[in-house]
Every structure is written in structure tokens, then in C-alpha cells.
Amino acid sequence: MGSSFGIAIVGCGTVGNATAALLLSESDNFYRKTGIKLTLKALVDINFDRAREAELNDSLFNENLASVLEDGTVHLIVETVGGLTIARTIIEKALKSGKHVVTANKALLAHYGAELFALARKNSVSIGFEASCAGGIPIIRALVDGLLSNSNEALYGIVNGTSNFILTEMVEKGKTYAEALKLAQAEGLAEADPTLDVNGMDAAHKLTLLGSLAFGVSIPLDDIPVEGIDGLDLFDVSMGNDLGYVLKLVALARKTEKGLEMAVKPMFLPDDHPLARVSGPFNAISVYGNAVGHTMYYGRGAGGSPTASAVVSDVLSIALGTWSTLFSTLTIWPDRCEKARLADSGESIHRYYLRFMIRDVSGVVAKITAVLAEKGISLNAFVQKESHEGKLVPIVITTHEAREKDISEAFNTIVGLPSVDNKAVRIRIIDEHPESL
Amino acid sequence: MGSSFGIAIVGCGTVGNATAALLLSESDNFYRKTGIKLTLKALVDINFDRAREAELNDSLFNENLASVLEDGTVHLIVETVGGLTIARTIIEKALKSGKHVVTANKALLAHYGAELFALARKNSVSIGFEASCAGGIPIIRALVDGLLSNSNEALYGIVNGTSNFILTEMVEKGKTYAEALKLAQAEGLAEADPTLDVNGMDAAHKLTLLGSLAFGVSIPLDDIPVEGIDGLDLFDVSMGNDLGYVLKLVALARKTEKGLEMAVKPMFLPDDHPLARVSGPFNAISVYGNAVGHTMYYGRGAGGSPTASAVVSDVLSIALGTWSTLFSTLTIWPDRCEKARLADSGESIHRYYLRFMIRDVSGVVAKITAVLAEKGISLNAFVQKESHEGKLVPIVITTHEAREKDISEAFNTIVGLPSVDNKAVRIRIIDEHPESL
């Protein structure tokens, strides 16, 4: 009892400062609960304005990473710089200096996780990354520990809080995409440059990591079909709502006979779907295991304090040695497992929401349904709004289950019809995944 | 790599047999993921009829526990006998023989957890009990690992699947309590003797364990105010529903200025409360931490296969050594922490649903509201159904926040009024817990 464990945080932004504050304020509690004294040794950055704003003590500030890495009393580096360049160098240097690393950097791990994990092993240290996926929700631990007894069958996540906040504002308050994005930025939920959030890539980064651990395979980021919420129209959000669906940016990975199906896309969920109620900045991940059935994990997917919660839990687990045991023993990490066999996304089976804009020409509806019928696609609902002469009239169709490829071909054929405008929309509908119990 | 870890299961009922089946069918997967060969060495019972039905191999059957405990290749005993007597003896013998123990026995741990944990430490082994609370949901791990960085502020659980199934049938299908209970039994969701499920004691057992780990204190089972669903009337379930509330059996533990408030009672949750949608046999636990805010864990709270998922995850964690590290190092276990300072439940502050049956006498409504006003209790809603001469007429009141003690006194005064029948109902209304972030 009473061992000391030294920590340096590199990057004094929102997460770095919140982590420092949590380590400092709860130090006695952690000691009482674990017998380990977590000691914050240094805050490393080149600018300490935000750290000063957060009222962190000047004596911790250090511009010299090398000196921190040489300090034998520092056992672990928390990287909260973000991005793919400097952060990568920092982590590599830390690992080579024999320091454990804890990071929230999903982009970096999605791109270079396998290399970094291997480098950590070579130096007999470990990398904690609970904070990289879904903020404070302990989903990584659930996959590598609590659900380890399962062969997982599917994982569905709402893992980008910014997108979910924007969609919730559109669904519940009828805001346009642009209005909702502006509000997200005003409330500090979206970055000044929100590209990675709204184009789906942030969710794809997380899906690469979560899918890899859930299925024990390595998943190349580039192989995931990704679509963001940035092209969405309020009309479809509202129309889907009227039909009993909620639009969410869903990250999906599931086993099929033809391999692992993966996707990040805006999808419609039926009102009573377990993920349909996950609103605003919250995240949730549903996992379907062969033994446990459906389990779901819900919480704040971003923000300084929730992310710091995950960072510090990693620090504690590494200090205790439990994370290090999992990291060094298990074979489900991306650097230790085979590449996933991914299913051809054209073969995936889903229901669909389709919206076409037609010129008010009698006969075109019959043509549209004929094209769908030809591909064996049967209709579930059909809505034609009142038409005003000369204007484009929306037609909304929901289908029964169909192959993506067939939908895609029918969609393109319909958009090519002379009376159909080329602005058209196609969104998957995801029913609740069946439990195999 | 390649170490072998021997397991014996004592008790060939639903959970024991499902655990055996999972260990046998997934053995290769576990070896691939962990490098450890989990080997099922014996099934111990005095009757193997159900094990034979489950098509488990006769060669594993063993009536002689002593011989299993003497077997040096058996490292861990899974106890799935249940109850407070034989199970206790089995676990004590196993621990004294230097075997780790994994159990789903919440009743036993709620009563004798501290003694058994201490005995395990004395013999340098550990006890895994993920399966004891909320079936397959990895909530114990969340509390002792994923959320370890937090000082928790509150925990709310729907942790008895039988009660939740019965209430869901009453709410959604208008069944009476007796009808719903009968269905639960027919579907194998309720025991032949469902007493502990429907009288709230099973949920109290789990709350003792979960609360203890969430707050790092030991909680005497007898100190928890417990009320079951067995006295509920369909009228109140439906009336609450009309007012926008869902009735759930809630297990609650939360910090207040006056100590830890704990209770297991049927409570009304507003429709949009995060736990309101937890239906049928599902369980969920909401935890509010000072750093992470609200996180929720959802899944099947009972059943052979989901419980076996938790049992085998414990077996894997003990075989890997991670659970043993947490068990031996942390100080939040009931045998290592101080007794909780519990708040006087009379001081707890809640909103209430009140229902009185009155004889159709003008003036009694004024008397009722006067009694409430005298205690400083203000009304939120008031519903009086049409009266038919000579019959008892229900009056339903929802209140704003009030002290339990004041509500109780007002309630008793009202029931004592000459025009009020002594059959009356008082149910807490629980709004969503605020996050302190």
C-alpha cells in the first residue's frame, strides 16, 4: 500500500485540464480506494493560457517534454493534444521512454493503433484508450472484460455527440441543419471546424476501435462506408418522424454470413428502438452477444469532465496493473488479430426510406413503383404530398427489406426518369437487432 | 500461453447448466482470446436430471464435493445452488480449500458478503459475483473499474426482472397483478415461489451490493426500507399512466446532506425518465458520478444464458488475474469499508402520488386539501372521478416535493377522516436525478 504513481499530461485543452483537475481534487479518494497515490507531476504544452483559466498551478507547467520523459518518477503520459501528427510523435516518444500512455485520440488510434500498440508491447508498457470512444461510457472495458465470455454478433452505436445533438434539435425543434449546427457551436458541443463530427469520420474512427475489440479482428478504417449528417434535409427528418422513425447517425458492425458488415450513416430507427431515445449530446452503444443477448451502455460521449473520468479510470487501471494484464495477455487487440473479412456492402439487407421529387406528371408514380417491383423491392408505405402545379412534389416511400445493390440500382433508374428531379434521398431503416438467445 | 484453469460447477439448475454449456461450447474461443484453457472438471449435485436434460456429459457428474475440493487441478468453484444455507457451506469449504469462487447468489452475499470476502482473503483467493446483480449486465465491473475515477452521487436500478415484467404487463396490457404474475410464471420468468421477487427483497439484496460498491460503504440489508409490487392495484398503475408516469420497482441509493438515502419501492417515473422505457424482463442501472455525470447500463437481468455470461466473464477475469487484483487491492469491498451513515427516510424529499377512496360527501375534498396545506404540501395535479351515489370514489393527487414524514402524517390524518376509506395508496414520484457536472 501507498505506492506513488506519477503522471504527466501533454496538452492543456478541455480534456487535459479537466483530467488535471480530477486528478488533483480526487487524489485522496483515489488513495483511499486503491492504496495508490496518483501524483500529477507535470502539464506539458507550449501555451498555458487555458490551463491558467482552469486555475491549474503554474508550478506544474513544463514546456519541455524531453525532460518529463527523462523523469523516472513519471510512469504515465496522458496525451490530449489530438490529431495525427504531433500527438503521434508524443506517444511514440513516451512509449520508447518506457512510459504508459492514456489517450482519448480516436483518430490516431483508428489510423495507427496497431503500430502504436505493438510499440507499447516492445517497451513493456500499455496504452489505455477508454476515453477515445463514447467519452465517459466504460464501453471499451465492457468489450474486453465484462463481455469477454461472449462471441459478439452485432454492435450499434450512437457515438458522435455533436451529430446527435444536431439531429435531436432537427427532430424535436424543427431546426434546419445549419441552425442546429450553429447552436451546437454556440453551446461548445461542436468544434470551430466540425468537419470530422458531421461528416461521419469521427464515428468511423470509433467504430474501427469498437468493432475491432467486439469481434477480435482488425478493421481498416478505409473499408468502412461512411456518410455524415451534413447533407441532411429537415424535410426528411420530419417526414421520417411522421412515419414513426427517428433519424440518428448510427455506427454499425454486425456479423453476416458474407462477412462483417460495417457502416456509419444516418439511419432511421423506429420510435421504440432502444437507441431511439438517446438524445442531445448523449451516446449509447448496443452490443448483442451470443450468451448475454442485448446489453446497452449509455452516457455522455464528450466534454471535459466525462472524458476525464475515462482517462483517470485508465490511469487507475494501469497503476493497479489490471489494464496492463488485459493489454499484454489478450489477443483481441488490433495488432494481434487478423484482418476482418468485410461483407460487400451492396449485399447488405435493410429497409429503406426513399424520397423523390417529381414534376407533377401523371404516370410517374406508376413508373416508380414499376422500377421497384422489377428489382423485387416491395413497399411498406407510400406518401405523396399535395401537388401545386409546376412545382416539384415530394414522394416518400418506405420499403420492406431489400439488398442495398438492388435499392441502389432502382434508385438510380428512378432518378434518371424524365419526370424525376435528380435531388433524391435514400436512408436506411434499422429495426432492432434480434437476440439469438 | 496455454495455461489450464480448472472449474467445477456446484448446482445443476438453470444457471449451472447454462454456465457448463457456455464453458464447453466456447472453450476454443476463450483460449484464442486469452491464452487460457478453461477446463470444466466437474458438475456437482445430488440430482442430475436437469443436467441430463441439458445434454451435459455424464462423465462430468460428481456427487462428492469433497473429492472435487481435494482436486488440485480445480482452481475455481462456481456456486449456483442459491439460498442461504447449503450454498454458504459450499462457498466456505471452497474458499478454505483455496479455490476461487464465482457466484450469482445475491441473497447470500447481501447477508454474509463481508464474512465470505474476509474468508476469501484469508485463503488468498477471490470471489467473483458479477452475476449476482442484474444478470448479464457488467455493472459490478463498471462500479469497481470503469467508474473508479468517480465519487458517485446516486444509483437508481430496475434490478428485478420478474417485477418489471409484471409491471410492464399491467401498464401496457392492463392485466391485473394476479394475471401478470401468472403469465410470468408460465413464461419461466418467476419462480414457483416468487415471494422474494415481488416483495422487493431480491432487489434489496442487489441494492445492498451495488450501493456498497458505488459508495464504498457497507450497508446492512435490514436498514433498507423495502416495499414490493405485491400490493399494487391496476387502478393506480393505469391512473399514473394517464398522468404521464410509468410505475417501476426502483432500487435507489443516493447521497444527501443527511446521509445515504436508500429504498426499494414501487415508484412512478415520468414518461421521459431514462429508466421509464426499461420494459419486460430487462434491467437497467443508472449511476450518477461527479466526473462522468449520468451513465446507464441495460440488459437482461436474469435467465440462464445471460447469467452464465456474467459467471464466465468472472471466471475469465479470475483466471487472468485482473479480478483478483481488484479484489485484493481495492478497499471498497463490504468487508473493508465503514458502515454507511444512512439518512432518516422520514427526511427524504420526493414528489408523491396519493389516492384516497372517499364516500361521496361534499366537503371532504376541502378537508383533504386543508390537511395537505397544513403540512406545507402543495398539489401538482388533482383528479376526482365521477361519483356514483353511495359508492366509494377515488381521488388522486400528485404533490410537489415534500418530506416523507410530512406526507406520511398527512396521509394518516386523511385516512382517519370519517368520509375517507382506510384503503389508500401513496407512491413516490421520482424525477430524473440532476447531473452535478
Search tags:
homodimer; 437 residues; alpha/beta; Rossmann fold; Dihydrodipicolinate Reductase, domain 2; Alpha-Beta Plaits; 16 helices
Describe the structure.
The structure is a homodimer of 437-residue chains. With 437 residues, chain A is of the alpha/beta class. The first copy, chain A, has three domains: 3-132, Rossmann fold, CATH 3.40.50; 139-300, Dihydrodipicolinate Reductase, domain 2; 345-429, Alpha-Beta Plaits (2-Layer Sandwich). Helices cover 38% and strands 25% of the residues of chain A. Chain A contains 16 helices and 16 strands. In chain A, the strands form two sheets. In chain A, strands 7, 8, 9, 10, 11, 12, 13, 14, 15 and 16 form a ten-stranded mixed sheet that branches. Chain A has a six-stranded parallel sheet with strand order 3-2-1-4-5-6, with helices on both faces. In chain A, helix 1 (14-25) packs across helix 13 (304-320) and helix 8 crosses helix 9. The longest helix of chain A has 17 residues, at 106-122. The radius of gyration of chain A is 24 Å and the shape is elongated. Chain A starts with a strand and ends in an 8-residue tail after the last strand. The mean pLDDT of chain A is 95. Chains A and B meet through helix 2, helix 7, strand 11, helix 13 and helix 14 of A and helix 2, helix 7, strand 11, helix 13 and helix 14 of B.
